[in-house]
Amino acid sequence: MSARICIFTEPHRGADYDDQLRFAQLAEACGFEGFFRADHYQAMGADPGLPGPTDAWLTLGALARETSRIRLGTLVTSATFRLPGPLAVTVAQVDRMSGGRVELGLGAGWYEREHTSYGIPFPPAPERFDRLEEQLAVITGLWRTPVGEHFSHHGDHYQLLDAPALPKPVQAPAPPIIVGGRGPKRTPELAARYADEFNMPFKSVAETARAYRRVAEACERTGRAEAGRPPLVLSTGVVVAIGHTDAAAQRRAAPLHVKSALPPEDPVIGSPAQLVDRIGEFSAIGAVRFHLRLIDFTDLDHLELIAAEVLPQL
């Protein structure tokens, strides 16, 4: 089995910058491929997630200067949070600060509560997906415009006129873009047209296999291969709570039983061997990259356990 293993974190549950730095640096030292974080401004249950939210891209810019190898990115940035032109500038700058290690996960946004709490407009779902599609077109267009040329976009939601399309990211032609989710229609289509990676988060192997088939069909419909674009990297998110004993695994799984706005998930709760087996099942349906969601930033032993007893078997 050959699997690319990343760590995915949710700082809105309660983590300041130092917590994230410690986790990212240990993940790098342990040999994980990437450190990804959610982009949310509010916790999703009754726990307020003290000390409060940290901005995803401000955090990643700082981590870019305090790590050297590990890849950094979001799963996923909400298209409702930022205008596409400034977001393209921000991500390109962080890519330069990291020496070319950044990836942009971009989604339509779904958690209404954080929008209303912080005064962020939250249009209906069809409009959010329209805006996501335009943002993908704008961001990739800005990054891919040659130096010295200008980029314009005349859409229903965003208009750019003669943008200098600077700065350029280090990665050429652009940092990898991740599109994912459970949506059966527009999500596969957008992934086929704009993404480098399609991610199915935290679902069963069977549900993930169906999502992979939908995105494969979308790639055929849009002529991705005929356009000379490489195949999509298929990835999955896996919620993880493992331990040397069942008691340790159940202790780590306790936050998963707290009421939350998140949809139902299919976690791995048990032994390192069970996580290896689950990764093998996902590999068999085409997944090559795995974003392991760890909950507790203070539980460094959990990260080290995966590095010691799971990574060597992959």
Helix-residue proportion? 25-40%
Q: Helix and strand string, N-terminal first? A: EHEHEEHEHHEEEHEHEHEHEH
This entry's quaternary arrangement is single chain
Number of strands: 12
- The gyration radius over C-alpha positions equals 19 Å
Overall shape: it is globular
The side-by-side strand order for the widest beta sheet comes to 1-2-3-5-8-9-10-12
- Unreliably modeled segments: none
Main beta sheet: strand number and arrangement? 8 strands, parallel, barrel
Helices, by number, come to: 10
Class by helix and strand content? alpha/beta
Termini gap: 5 Å
Strand content: 15-25%
pLDDT averaged residue by residue: 96
How would you summarize this macromolecular structure in one to three sentences?
By secondary structure, the protein is α/β, with parallel strands linked by helices.
Structure, explained:
It is a single chain. This protein is α/β, with parallel strands linked by helices and 314 residues long. Helix content is 40%, strand content 18%. The chain is built from ten helices and twelve strands. The chain has helices spanning 17-30, 56-66, 84-98, 112-118, 125-144, 186-194, 205-222, 246-253, 272-284, 300-309, and strands at residues 4-9, 34-37, 71-74, 77-78, 102-107, 151-154, 159-163, 177-180, 197-201, 233-242, 268-270, 289-293. The strands form two sheets. An eight-stranded parallel barrel has the order 1-2-3-5-8-9-10-12, surrounded by nine helices. A two-stranded antiparallel ribbon has the order 6-7. The chain is globular, with a radius of gyration of 19 Å. The model has no long low-confidence stretch (mean pLDDT 96).
